[in-house]
Design brief:
CATH topology of the largest domain: Rossmann fold
Strand content: 15-25%
Number of strands: 13
Oligomer: single chain
Structural class: alpha/beta
Number of helices: 13
Number of domains: 2
CATH architecture of the largest domain: 3-Layer(aba) Sandwich
CATH superfamily of the largest domain: P-loop containing nucleotide triphosphate hydrolases
Helix content: 25-40%
CATH class of the largest domain: Alpha Beta
Length: 367
């Protein structure tokens, strides 16, 4: 007796998803994009490539992607019409699925997750970023737009700790992106939906596990932020990411996530606990691929005062003041990339937060 028709349909749908993913992996793309009314596409070095000619329908996307969701992600998707999930396929590797609604129809973005945890030295970030992995305590925030490599930098910092220090690291992610081996450190990886129901529950549990380092894959809600800030205040090193564009917006995103009457309190706590803010973007390289441009503020007395007073517009000045401690501006990073032959001057000027500063630095470097 054969398998029921609905089971066969699910197998066929998964087979189609795996075919798309095989193409993604074979071509070395980063993401598979499934959007109704367009062909199946991949992102390769930040550019879109069609992998089929036929236009996708929402029902096709839903049939192919929804059966691949974890039970937790499936429940979330049914309730909220948006969900993240991990997916593993033998021979292809691991993937992060984001299924969502687009103009009222199902769409999906699926990212290929590297099998090897990157070394920090391979990311082409300025050398002072390495110091973040060796901070004894405090909150370290990594900001940047979607697809800017925040999760990769986070994983590389954990890898730096794991290879060099005997520390207890607890990571909370949704979903888990990189798989870390136990090297000098013990690295526990808690996946939301599989090991814990949500970030706040997982973080409260983590605090009872005697961690030295707590990694929060992404700051998504005020309660997660509150627990992370409190953990950093009580002597833990806490690493996390936010979808932001520069140092000031990364800091403000934390306080702005709370009700107005609580924002002053969280700013006082953040001023005490924040150790560093790193933001990054990816730019097209002259030799193919992409290079990160970054900005780093090592938080000192002046920055803490500005955070307390909500005078975040002055944090850019603090970068210049604390350069001896490892801080650098986005414009500093862009100059190094230009003169290193990695990026075009025009691309740098387009993404500079302070283009006048960049022009001055470029002129000064010619002298």
């Amino acid at each position: 007796m054969g398998a029921p028709r609905n089971e066969l349909a699910a197998v066929d749908a998964t087979r189609r998803l795996n075919h798309w993913l095989e193409t993604l992996v074979t071509r070395g793309g980063s993401d598979l994009l499934l959007v109704p009314g367009t062909p199946a596409c991949i992102l390769f070095e930040g550019r879109i490539q069609k992998i089929e000619e036929g236009l996708l329908e929402a029902a096709e996307i839903e049939a192919a992607v929804v059966p691949a969701l974890t039970p937790h992600a499936l429940r979330v998707y049914k309730e909220q019409q948006i969900a993240d999930s991990s997916y593993r396929q033998e021979g292809l590797g691991r993937f992060r699925i984001n299924v969502h609604q687009e103009r009222g129809h199902t769409a999906a973005a699926i990212r290929a997750l590297p099998s090897v945890v990157p070394a920090l030295s391979d990311l082409h970030l300025p050398p002072s970023v390495q110091a973040l992995a060796h901070l004894p305590r405090g909150l370290v925030l990594i900001g940047g737009p979607a697809g800017s490599g925040k999760s990769t930098t986070l994983a590389a910092l954990v890898n730096e700790i794991n290879r060099n220090e005997a520390r207890h690291v607890v990571m909370v992610e949704d979903p888990m992106e990189y798989e870390h081996k136990h090297l000098k450190s013990i690295v526990e990886q808690v996946e939301i939906g599989t090991d814990a129901p949500d970030f706040p529950t997982a973080l409260r549990a983590a605090l009872r596990q005697a961690p030295d380092v707590i990694v929060v894959g992404e700051m998504r809600d005020a309660e997660t932020m509150r627990i992370a800030v409190a953990a950093a205040e009580t002597g833990h090193l806490v690493l996390s990411t936010l979808h932001t564009t520069d140092v000031a917006t990364t800091v403000s995103r934390i306080s702005d996530s709370f009700p107005l009457e609580k924002q002053n309190t969280i700013r006082q706590e953040l001023a005490m606990s924040l150790a560093a803010v790193l933001t990054q973007i990816l730019l097209p390289s002259k030799r193919g691929g992409r290079f990160p441009a970054a900005e780093l503020l090592m938080v000192g007395y002046g920055a803490r005062q500005h955070i307390r007073r909500n005078a975040l517009q002055h944090l850019h000045q603090e970068i210049a003041i604390t350069k001896k401690r490892g801080s650098f501006s986005l414009e500093d990073s862009l100059v190094q990339l230009i003169y290193g032959g990695h990026i075009e001057r025009e691309d740098a000027l387009l993404c500079a937060i302070h283009p006048d500063d960049l022009e001055i630095l470029l002129k000064d470097s010619r002298k």
